[in-house]
Amino acid sequence: MCMIRRILFQIVIICIFMATATGVGYANTFPDVPSDTKLSEELNVLSDFGGIAIIPNEPFRVNDAITRYEAAEMIVRTMQIDYEASPIPTYEDISEDDPRMPIIAAITELRIMTGFEGKFNPDAKLTRAQAVKILAQAFGLSGQAPITYKDIPKNHSGSNAIQAFVANQILFPAKNEKFNPNAVMTRGNFASYTARIIEPTLRPSEPEQPVFESCAKDTNKKRYVVDVAVTNFWNKPNQARAVDYPSTKDPVEMQKWVSSLSLSQKKWLVGRTDTQALYGDEVALLETKGKWQRVAAKDQYVPYLKEGYPGWVPKTHIVATNKNYDDCAIAIITSQKAHLLEEDAKTKFLQISYATILPIIEEDAKYYYVETPSNGVKLLKKGDAKSYTAYSKVPKPTAQTIIKEAKRYLDLPYLWAGTSSWGYDCSGILYAVFRSHGIMIPRDSFYQATGGKAVAKKDLKPGDLVFFAYNGGKGKVYHVGLYVGEGKMLHAPHYASKVKIESMNNGAYKKNYSGARRYL
Q1: Which residues are catalytic?
Q2: Which of 60, 243, 401, 416 is the most buried (most CB within 10 A)?
Q3: H helix intervals, 274-335
Q4: Cis link prior to 237 (omega < 30° from 0)?
Q5: How far from chain centre, in Å, is Cα 516?
Q6: Which residues share a beta bridge with 358?
Q7: 209, 347 Cβ separation under 8 angstroms
């Protein structure tokens, strides 16, 4: 009986290889798979064959590791096997009435996947090498081709299966690419390979972006991170105006927003927005009201809340993740703005701000491969960033380095609460420049005035922060500048101004000078 089913199984495979998917119009399959990507097309093909089910608003979990049961189910359903007719095997870890048993019984009978030491281990994660061996056996792939993966020697246990994948163009390795056989196989990759096997027109004709062994670790702890280029922190939910829509949508259009604001509309922001957070910044989730969430930016210190600087943001601007990047190197954006690129190194994915910090998965001569909050690995030109093994390893800057960096933003229009290179306020520009050089100073001027080392006015040096307060310098600090020498400071004065250098010893600045702090 098993032999007959095996023969029928192979006949189904032959029929599938002969089928083509011409004339199919592909719709967006899953909320975490953009409709214009190749993976979306591949998932649609799998759906047509019954290998996966598309459930409205249900993510595919592209970057999650695939389990043994999930792999078995995708194979059995794709091949349209009558899994209700298989004899029930005996496994210590799966009862006969377990709803997963029919799939496991079918994959066991076909000897594609069997247990080990009396267990099937349905929830165990497959490595990349294990998954490729299973797929090659399931679909009867064979063939020989030179393996260019530099981490797969000829005597590797997965060598034959990988050769078959390369010979059939399921894989098209790039020069000096690693296969990373011991890394987990993701659901996205497994589905992609399965679709390419059953639909030859999906197979790549040129090398694709390498698959890297990620330094990210899956954990049981949920983290929340900013998933747009920059998000405004409002002090109340639902406060944004119609003119603010480009800054509240997803993705945001910051340049369109700041360029559209009149001076009166910029002034209106004063006291209504408090700060901003950049792409990939970690936040703490404090509260949810409808389409808005109150979060706290962990890297922006305030003394009254241990979680960080609080504010309200659109829910769509925050994404939850279980990944930890503590073991990853980092890229700090040094260009005023930089584009993250898709795997073809040509298509622009997202423009991000100066001082954005992202984890690095791998690098080559031209690009850093950085992990994004919810869209996988993207390419970043090396000329747009500097890399470090950890934030704590960023070398301490000189005063001249800080000043030179801040001068790049001369004539940039002021933006209240701004911490991105689309617009800064007085303390925001200093927070960003110091942050990009490994020093996390407080976000607001009145907290910046309490850190570092106090400096007398007569002892000022370039690179010091100078502060101004109400009531002739004796009240609450309201402004900060970067001392550049000769009695001058670089600062962002107010909503109707731009970043500029001017004397700190004239008019209100002379009258309200309240002190200085040294962070270098």
Answers
A1: 426, 479, 491
A2: 416
A3: none
A4: no
A5: 38
A6: 331
A7: no
